[in-house]
Amino acid sequence: MILKNSFIKLQIEDLKRRVWSIALSMLAFIVLLPIFCALNISNFQSVSVEELEWIMLQLVGLVGPGNYLIITATIICAVICGLSGFFYLHSRKKVDFYHSIPVRRERLFFTCYLNGVLIYVIPYILNLIFSLIIIGVNHYLNAEILLAALSGVGINLLFFCLTYTLTIIAVMMTGNLIISICGTGVFLLYIPSVRELINSLCISFFATFANYSGSNKSSSFLSPIESYINIATQNIRGNDYIFSIITSVAVTIVLVGVALFLYKKRSSEAAGKSMAFKVSKPIIKFLLVVPLSLGGGILLRSIVTFGYDAWFVFGVIFAFIVSYGLIQVLFEFDIRSVFQHKRQMLLSAVIIAVIALVLRLDVFGYDDYLPEIGEVKSMSVSMTGMDQGLNYYEYVDGNLVYYNAFDYELSRMKLTNVQAAYDLAEMGVKNRIKKGDRNNYNAYYWNNDVYTYYVKYTLKSGREVYRSYGITLEESRNSLSKIYSDQAYKDVHFPIYQWQENDVDEVRVSYNTDILNYDSSGIDAKEGINFSLSGDSLSQLLDIYKAELSGVTLEEAEKEIPVIELSFQMSDYTYDNYYVYPSCIKTLTFLEERGFDVKKRVEPEKVLELTIYNFSKTQEVISKDGVSVVSNVTVEPVSYKEQRDILEILPALVPSEYSQNNRMLINVEENVEVNLTYRFGDSGLVQNFGFSVRKDSLPEQVKKDLGL
Hints:
This protein folds into 4 domains: 2-175 and 184-208 and 219-270, no CATH class; 373-495, no CATH class; 499-593, no CATH class; 604-706, no CATH class. It is built from 25 helices and 16 strands. The strands form 5 sheets. A 5-stranded antiparallel beta sheet has the order 13-10-15-16-14. A 4-stranded antiparallel beta sheet has the order 7-6-8-9, covered by helices on one side. The chain is globular and about 100 Å long.
């Protein structure tokens, strides 16, 4: 009973000196929970009853774990509570006073530790209850919102404790407030910062490096901030979600033990010094100097246009001298100690030099890597410049999560017939070796005739390897054609194959050429001239189109221009657009039977003028007094009005949007644009439309006129 009373008295005394942090915590949660909740609900008064589901999602997001404002407040509160709870360790007088109290250090530690948790959790829970009362009074409270609130309390409290404990460890290892704050920042941000540095180094020195975001998830649990965000926002699910929570709980418990151990071992004389434990200085110095030096080199290398290696070396040396000297001064609080511990300095310099040389010379053959085909279980591929208008997303607990094509395809595709995909990878490796100097690799392939080919090898051992290659269409057409015809590729490349029966509400049908999406009266009737299908007709169209899309070959996608565009409206009001090629006979017949004119085409006699611009001639180099000077040149377009010229040029034109979305397949004249002037019916309306031009398809006289 006496021990219990003494513990409570210690708590009360500790809370008295931390009143300011209690008030700050209470104020923050009053604003972020009940006030924000009341504001949101007042805005809901203007929302229709039909949007009740949306309102519930907003309220779940407000009280649940995915509220970014609460996440931010939790991290800030954890840092403040950690620094304020053990601030006395920075003052020798206060340390002597606290340690003279006839109480064991363990009891003193847990008194301060528990108070920090209470300063966060009590204001949080109280204001959460007020928010739930406000929601209930307005008749929005349900089991889903209550469950989200409970989940939010559990996850936020867990990561408060994790961040709070890391801050306390930073305080234990240092003897100065500024150094403690810096130490906390290092603990929270070191892992993601080093990972980004590694990615930047690999991007700079390895021509075949593929910076796949999914490959970073394996190390994200090492970062408390990343792990917190991933769990709170449910960026990870299933077993990964459970694993991350269990790992976070275990790590927090271990770190509490580490903090207690350091507290017991920390000497009173450490107050006022930079570091409380002398043995930690060289380790921390090394862990900071190496990435800071390499980061300085990468920063300068990324800024310059020429002399990458020279600037990288200069940046590394400069950053090494500055970072080592600054850290040494902070450790010793003495400007004269800048270059002390020369052995440590030399060792760090040698390690930095070795890392730089290993990267620059590719000692371990990263770019030359190609697994034996017998070792490959499956492959996933993704290519730039093809069908870039597609949307990639999935629903996660009712929320729409978008992905880029690269992440989506590599994470989901499994090509078991790997020969064609492997052949393309082999071409990519040979191209890099053929060039020799990997620093010139990207510059050599930086043109529109080359596409980036991303690969994930899934080996029979279970290992996953990611690479990217630069490959021309000409050399890869045969293998690429085989991949494109593989249904395992199309099942992922075209998300339409993943849709569920109730995902689509309606499809709007339009022409792929904007000219045809205007009616004869000149009224803008885009969105398919108001032609749409739903219900059974939509389901039938989906089945027919998917079957025919499976049969579309690479050659058809490359040479044919789609005649129709299907815009599918999803249940959440997003749209997905797909092209219908002339070879999709059944789809076109189905639409024609339901009243859509699939045979409508641009009428050459209504084309009043074709104006062609060659923007590559906007500058020229002239010699002035023996000095080369770049001079701006006014672009003079070339116009054609004769029917004979128009008929010769029209077959070379490609709708601009389609060519941009398929620049790998549709090779167009760079910097050449066509403005087509069209007259509609008898109304006399004249409208202009933009087109691209297929490469080497213009008549010779037109090429001469343009100076191509």
